[in-house]
Amino acid sequence: MLRINRETDYATAILSLMAEAPDERYSAAWLSAERGLPGPVVSKILKQLVKGGLLMSHRGAKGGYSLSRPAEQISIAEVITAIEGPIALTDCIEGGGSACQYSPLCAVSHNWSRLNDVFYDALKAVSLKDMSKPLVQEHPVLREVGQRVKSAVS
Question: For residue 118, is it within any domain?
Fold first, then answer.
């Protein structure tokens, strides 16, 4: 089963809250209380998001964290990558040909790579702003992903 980890889910929840008032600065304590998450976990996630370039950290009396750019310019793919690392459906995508002893003879590796590209593109097309409210059925990603999967495997 493909599944994002708990920290990525929390990061998305924290960032979507920040996207509601993107010009504000937020403390780790406030975000923790508002989302009902453990403080140490929120602090760890915020540091990863700063390192990933999605948040800025501000020192001083009016310090805290803020989005590094507008919410519509931050993709869910970036959030996942900041917390979990590169998006790869299989080991052979993440590690290349050296990840598997059978790669020189593998017929499915290329197909996994094409499917991974479609999956990544779909996540890249959904912004943090999109995630801060329910996606409508007509959202381009929801409408087109099936077509892109079909074209990737044909």
Answer: yes
